[in-house]
Amino acid sequence: MAQTSVDIEHKTDHIQHHFVDSDQQFESSKLGMWIFLVTEILFFGALFAAYIVYRAWYPELYLEASTELNAFWGTVNTAVLIGSSLTVAMAIRSAQLNQIKGLIYNLYITIGLAFIFMVIKFFEYAEKLEKGIAPGAYYTYDGLEHEKANIFFSIYYMMTGLHGLHVVIGIGLMVWLVIKAKKKVFHSGYYTPVEITGLYWHLVDVIWIFLFPLLYLID
Amino acid sequence: MSGHHISSAKFLWGIGTALFILTFITVAVTWISIPAPWNVVVAIFIAVVKATIVALFFMNLWWDSQFNVMLLITSVIFFLLLVGITLLDTLYRSDPIPSF
After folding, report:
1. How many separate domains does chain A show?
2. Does A15 map to a domain?
3. Calpha distance A51→A214 (Å, rounded)
């Protein structure tokens, strides 16, 4: 892609004075994001710990209550998120190759897939709330025998709800990336926000990769 | 920027396809009945394989500084510590099982 002298002038704008060079700055940003991802793993880890403790106490509850979850739509959502991880990786690749149009298109597709995930989630929640399957004290559903059914759904809503919130935050971040990309902020020499938002997005996908079999596919 | 690994589009699509296939396997495995604790072990094992593929090839850890790999592995170790020590308590409580 032809570069004007204006483009070349701005290629080093991003380098901040306290870094030796662009590479060191990039590596530092990535390290910072990985440390944040560690906190996210521990954050969701605590919720998984609650899941595990309660399942060890009431395995038959999980078997019964999980029949209310629709494994088909859970699978669709898994495919949607994996697809969105692929497209965000393609977006980063576009930025690396200075293909800013490709970057924007791939970000749009990723946002679209994330949106589809939330729409499916919305219908899943709506169907449950209509029946009276609500978290904790608000649970009024009769269809399950187990007396602790409301606790299973508290765990379900807590885990999938917080995960969904992370998806929405990811959508917001990627919209911001599109806005910046349209302003020509990113190029093959500087795409750090795209890279680290991608890392965040992949973690959101990985968390769902564990949530899906543990909630939807209980035998 | 020098030294940044750029994956080919073919490679990324290949990883995506592998993940879709593993997702199908995740569901297919529930169609065979596997006895009690092992069905969970198999499900978690497949999930770990998928997560590792995402971490190595989408999150670029295969080509990245090993410090980042160490951070990821350490967080998993601490998660296992959290669950392990908690279970050492909760699995061996005599009674009563709490009211919640």
Report:
1. 1
2. no
3. 9
User: Would you say A157 and A205 are in contact if contact means Cβ atoms under 8 Å apart?
Assistant: no
**Of A36-40, A133-137, B18-22, which gets the smallest average pLDDT?**
A133-137
Rounded to an integer, the average pLDDT of A19-47 is 96
Distance between B88 CA and the closest CA of chain A, angstroms: 10
Q: Are A189 and B1 in contact (CB < 8 Å)?
A: yes
What distance in Å separates the CA atoms of residue A173 and residue A197, rounded to the nearest whole number?
7
Of A161, A109, A78, nearest to B51 by C-alpha is: A78
Residue boundaries of the structural domains of chain B: 9-90
What residue numbers bound the domain in which A190 lies?
23-216
Residues of A in contact with B19 (CB under 8 A): 82, 85-86
A7-15 long-range contacts, CB within 8 A, separation 24+: A7/A187, A11/A187, A11/A189, A11/A190, A12/A189, A13/A190, A14/A189, A14/A190, A14/A192
Q: Which residue, among A174, A164, A169, A155, has the nearest Cα to A214 in the 3D structure?
A: A155
In this prediction the ipTM stands at 0.93
Query: What count of Cα atoms within 13 Å lies in the side-chain half-sphere of residue A25?
Result: 17
Q: CB of A165 within 8 Å of any CB in chain B?
A: no
Tokens at residue A74, please? 């859970």
Alpha carbons A30 and A14: distance in angstroms, whole number:
15
Q: DSSP class of residue B95?
A: S
Are A80 and A112 in contact by the 8 Å Cβ rule? The answer is no
